[in-house]
Amino acid sequence: MNKCYIKHAIVAKIKRFHPWVYANEIESSLEEFHSGELVALFSKKEGFLGTAYVNPKCTIFARILCFGKEEVNKALFAKRIAKAIAKRTSLLTHTNAVRLIHSEADFLPGLIVDKYGDALSIQINTAGMEAYRKEVLEILQHVLEPTWIIEKSDLHSREIEGLKNQNGTIFGEPQKCFVVKEQAISFLVDIEESQKTGFYLDQRKNRAICAQYVKEGNAVLDLCCNVGGFGLYALARGAQKVVFVDISELAIAQSKENLKANGFENYEAYAQDAFEFMKTKKYRDIFDMVIVDPPSFAKTKEQARGAKRGFKHLLMESVRALKDGGLVALFSCSFHIGKTELMELAMEVSQDLRVQFTLLEEMRQDSDHPCLLSASASFYLNGLLMRVEK
């Protein structure tokens, strides 16, 4: 195994189990390594620090698999996959769809696996994990005996890693429609055509949290609704009407199917950009709750400034649309716009619109998308539920 020497300044970071080493943190020459190669990480002063796979094409040069002297082989992957699955056992008593493997947070960097009943939706997003594709698929088939495996790897991530796009059925017969069960609510999910790996499972807990604050007869606006998750929960709690908005025509079509499947009729649904929609509608003092759950506006640190402007605009329009004492739930699914940034934006809006916010709930991704304390980027989903006093 090739050796890679890292700068002494980052040894402390590695000893705190941070899973990444950046290209500017190594002393060895990048030309010594190839994409997906397994290397032993060394410090000239401290000696051996761990085993990682590397990619000299990427800013994140090394992703650490082992901080001790473990042999990286199929048995190691089998042990970690089994451990990740065991952590989710209790969740499967409440729903039939969970994330089984969450990349670095399950010590399998670059691998994501979602379970939908007997089907699996997977992502292999790094060159290092790509090198173990065969072993990973064999283990998943042996342990879980799925009827269908579909790959929905993130195109952007694979491009950065220098990998070709790899999507489509890997094993079994495709299942056109799967019914996700949550809190007695049914979501019809077209796994092949839906965004990401099929369904936003990470918001499961937050859908339930927001629904607890919905009262019978409320009016709710669900912005960037995807397939209608928050809005359906609101209707199940007795909301009189919910307005669903998403830029994707497919997402709105799926929302309508979900509404029909659950027997809900009091709704409006619009396939429209959220910014344009709010500009056109000019809602004022109409809603008891507004959900703002946009896609990632900031995939990189450089995009954060523009993203904040987008968040602020949507929050301002949402506040205007709320009744006095109404609630707004504001979410960010980008690590670069975290809880602190959301609170700062809320304070700016508070000053600009002369309103006061009371924080009711802080929200993160559900437990099947774990957060590693040693990896701040794993805290990617943040939400604030706030009462607005005008």
Describe this protein's structure:
With 390 residues, this protein is an alpha/beta fold. The protein folds into three domains: 2-66, PUA domain (Archaeosine Trna-guanine Transglycosylase, Chain: A, domain 4, Roll), CATH 2.30.130.10; 74-172, 2-Layer Sandwich (Transcription Regulator spoIIAA), CATH 3.30.750; 200-389, Rossmann fold (3-Layer(aba) Sandwich), CATH 3.40.50.150. The protein is built from eleven helices and 19 strands. The chain has helices spanning 11-15, 74-87, 127-130, 133-144, 155-160, 204-211, 229-236, 249-261, 274-281, 304-321, 339-353; strands at 2-5, 20-22, 37-43, 47-54, 60-66, 97-102, 111-116, 119-124, 148-152, 167-172, 178-182, 185-189, 219-223, 241-246, 267-271, 287-292, 322-332, 356-364, 382-389. Strands 15-14-13-16-17-19-18 form a seven-stranded mixed β-sheet, sandwiched between helices. Strands 1-3-4-5-2 form a five-stranded mixed β-sheet. Strand 13 (219-223), helix 7 (229-236) and strand 14 form a beta-alpha-beta unit. The radius of gyration is 22 Å and the shape is globular. It starts with a strand and ends with a strand.
